[in-house]
From TrEMBL:
InterPro entries: MFS, MFS_trans_sf. It comes from the Bacteria. This is MFS transporter. The keyword Ion transport does not apply. The chain crosses the membrane at residues 5-23, 29-51, 58-77, 83-108, 120-143, 149-167, 197-222, 228-248, 255-273, 279-298, 319-339, 345-365. The lineage of its organism: Bacteria, Bacillati, Actinomycetota, Actinomycetes, Pseudonocardiales. Pfam families: MFS_1. Keywords: Membrane, Transmembrane, Transmembrane helix. SUPFAM superfamilies: MFS general substrate transporter.
Length: 381
């Protein structure tokens, strides 16, 4: 867990660092910076299932070696590239990014007994929140206080170190009981990508859509009310609420299902827009919805881990990563458009309604499958 926490730190820092580099050092606008970020995000979304499949087939070390080398090369060379070239290479760099999230879930599934995985996945989600508290702040400090070449090269060095540590330690990605499964023929995607798994992917995408939209709407609300100076504290309090929720979710013997948690997350986000000032009141009304953040993400991992066959678990976790990143990628521009053409308050409503709409697509997909493909109890997902 500590190893994967360290591996995620440069990943959480790279978005804001690249944005500020393109705007401040290359003299481009935020739109141009957004294109680089979108290329990286789309690349990682498309690449995650493919990388997961190669982890299933060839093991951890070859994949980490190739992805670590690619990520390191991209970030060390980035400050020496013109914008046009940077934009072009951002997509393949995203495809070959180090799959820290997928690896973390595979390692936990291999090391932790079934009855304790909820607690393990919850703790992993808490560490993700901690990485987002540290990584972006460190990236902003580096790119604003140091020459850009040092800041971007530093991220590359961090990728190199984390990939080297993962390669050297080589944590297990398969439980001993699953070893014999990997000697047989690989099942086809059609045979294991059931309606339940597809629905879990849509629910995860909806949850991330809601979360990124909620954060964007909160920042827009603070800016409109003249309280933007409190944005750092507000985001920290939102992370603290998520950590608290993750701790509770991991400690209880039986928790709510992934779908129920996501619906509650959206429902509690829906009325937040009714409060726009002062900042501390906004923080209070945001607290309940953020308590459900980590539990929803942990339940997504738990659902996919339970539903995917061991032989293709890496690919399934890669699909979960892809769904989450797509939710993030489409959430920001859609909620930004709503805020630009209405008010920050409507951004919260759009985040909630958009999340429910995305999850509804997954529900429709599952119901459209044959009865044999679906477990009898819908609530089990």
């Amino acid at each position: 867990m500590l190893l994967m926490f360290l591996a995620r730190l440069p990943m959480t820092a790279m978005g804001v660092t690249m944005t500020l580099y393109v705007v401040n050092d290359l003299g481009r606008g935020y739109g141009a910076a957004g294109l680089v970020g979108a290329a990286t995000t789309l690349g990682s979304a498309f690449g995650a299932p493919l990388v997961g499949r190669y982890v299933d087939r060839y093991g951890l070390r070859p994949v980490v070696a190739i992805c670590g080398l690619a990520s390191t090369t991209f970030w060390i060379s980035a400050p020496h590239l013109p914008y046009q070239v940077l934009l072009v290479v951002a997509l393949p760099a995203g495809v070959l990014s180090v799959p820290a999230g997928t690896l973390a879930r595979l390692v936990l599934t291999a090391l932790v007994p079934l009855e304790q995985r909820r607690a393990a996945y919850s703790l992993d989600t808490i560490l993700v929140e901690a990485s987002f508290m540290i990584g972006p702040s460190a990236g902003i400090m580096a790119i604003t206080q140091l020459p850009a070449v040092y800041a971007l090269t530093g991220i590359g060095v961090c990728f190199a170190l984390s990939a080297t540590l993962i390669y050297r330690l080589n944590p297990p990605i398969r439980a001993e009981a699953d070893t014999e499964v990997f000697t047989g023929e690989r099942p086809t995607v059609r045979s294991w990508l059931t309606g339940r798994l597809v629905m879990a992917m849509f629910i995860a995408a909806g949850a991330l859509f809601c979360l990124v939209g909620m954060e964007l709407a909160a920042l827009a609300t603070l800016r409109a009310s003249g309280d933007i100076a409190w944005s750092g504290l507000l985001i920290t309090l939102m992370c603290v609420a998520s950590v608290l929720g993750g701790a509770i979710h991991g400690a209880v013997r039986r928790s709510l299902s992934q779908g129920t948690l996501m619906v509650l997350l959206a429902v509690l986000t829906l009325p937040v827009g009714l409060v726009d000032h002062p900042w501390w009141l906004l923080a209070i009304v945001l607290f309940p919805s953020n308590v459900l953040c980590a539990p929803t993400l942990a339940a997504s991992t738990e659902t996919v881990s339970a539903a995917a066959p061991a032989r293709v678990r890496g690919e399934a976790m890669g699909l979960l990563d892809a769904a989450s990143r797509i939710g993030l990628a489409i959430g920001s521009p859609i909620i930004g458009f709503v805020i630009d053409h209405s008010s920050p308050g409507w951004g919260f409503a759009a985040s909630a309604l958009g999340a429910l709409a995305i999850a509804s697509v997954g529900l429709f997909w599952r119901r459209s499958r044959t009865p044999a493909d679906r477990p009898p109890a819908l609530a089990s997902s």
